[in-house]
Write a structure and sequence with these properties.
332 residues; mainly alpha; 13 helices; binds protoporphyrin IX containing FE
Length: 332
């Protein structure tokens, strides 16, 4: 037993493996064992290189002939190109961008004659607005001294400035029109009904935020049009129930022109520098962030509610003429 323990100990120190007592009984044998192992290991490696390198090289060359066989390609696309329903679904599901769309959809639900494409157009306009808006931010300062001058500078001196500003303006007008039309379509097709009530409510919020985006952008050129529009708009806020100093119960709640909701919106009691800065921050940061989050929820819900609602099922004449079974057969 003592001998065995000693042997095991020697195995450990020389680092050889194998059953204790059969190999590496003393230091000398241990060294021979290691040498043999290293030699056979190296031989194996050389043999592997002889066979592996040519086969790997062949693989690479084949890959160059057919790019779909390269490691880069197969690491990105993990399925074949066969045009089968299963493979098409896999193609969509295993791609981060494509998987945003469902793998299968109801053909009738995505017809333009049904959706008018208005939800998609509204979203597309929002993307254009974000893109052109960020570019406009490079030239615009939200201060009383510079704002209007920046707009003139954009209109007359900045290369492509006029088209940039007008793309932003026109996309803004169109987005307001598109969102109304989208809501109208959803209403006409009854798509606000179960199970889509929640998404209708998200939509109502999106409508409000779209209008707020439009309204806050109005003041930014700091021209007469925007100034008076915001003067009228925020004067209406005086009459807000509870929160406006002229609104129902406002007076009782201690609202004055210097602490009510209008004061909060303008950052003062008149439309001036603070109002311009607040409009700018709401317009460029606050509202777009909230609207983007709501849009993500909105699109997610469209998927979770079973996709776009789709028109009622259409029957062929021969299907309609077929004798029916079940309770409806008796005309109930
Ligand atoms: C920024 C605003 C909005 C965007 C970007 C947007 C986008 C979309 C998109 C892309 C769809 C898929 C179907 C389609 O294109 O028609 C959709 C569906 C829907 N939207 Fe909107 N939407 C917005 C505002 C609204 C508003 C204001 C409402 C209603 C108050 C609304 C209610 C709905 C409902 C209920 C659906 C499901 C319709 C169905 O399944 O047929 N959305 N939305």
């Amino acid at each position: 037993m003592a001998e065995e323990n000693k042997t095991n100990g020697s195995n450990l120190t020389t680092g050889t493996t194998g059953a204790p007592g059969t190999n590496g009984r003393n230091g000398k044998d241990g060294k021979v064992g290691i040498l043999e192992k290293v030699t056979t290991g190296v031989k194996d490696d050389i043999q592997a290189l002889r066979t592996d390198i040519p086969s790997k090289a062949k693989e690479q060359i084949d890959g160059l002939k057919d790019p779909t066989k390269t490691q880069v390609y197969t690491s990105i696309f993990r399925h074949k190109h066969d045009d089968t329903p299963r493979n098409r679904a896999l193609g969509v599901l295993s791609n981060v961008f494509l998987h945003l769309h469902p793998a299968k959809i109801n053909r009738d639900a995505v017809r333009y004659s049904y959706t008018w494409g208005m939800g998609g157009i509204t979203f597309y306009l929002f993307i254009i607005l974000t893109y052109t808006g960020v570019l406009l931010m490079f030239y615009y300062h939200p201060t009383k001294v510079q704002a209007f001058r920046d707009v003139l500078y954009l209109e007359h001196d900045v290369p492509f400035g006029k088209i940039l500003r007008n793309m932003h303006r026109w996309a803004a007008h169109l987005m307001v029109i598109a969102v109304w039309l989208h809501m109208f379509r959803v209403f006409l097709t009854g798509s606000y009904k179960k199970p889509r009530e929640f998404n209708w409510n998200i939509g109502v919020l999106l409508l409000v935020f779209t209008l707020l985006l439009s309204f806050t952008g109005y003041l930014l050129p700091d021209d007469q049009l925007g100034f008076w529009a915001v003067t009228v708009g925020t004067n209406m806020a005086r009459a807000t129930p509870l929160l406006g100093h002229e609104g129902p119960f406002g007076h009782q709640l201690g609202m004055t022109p210097y602490n009510d909701v209008r004061f909060g919106l303008l950052g003062g009691s008149i439309v001036d520098a603070n109002a311009l800065l607040r409009s700018y921050i709401w317009h460029c940061i606050g509202i777009p962030i909230v609207a983007s989050v709501l849009m993500i929820v909105h699109f997610w819900r469209v998927r979770k509610d079973g996709g776009i609602s789709g028109p009622g099922q259409v029957m062929l004449q021969e299907e309609a003429d077929k004798p029916r079974r079940g309770p409806k057969a008796a005309g109930e």
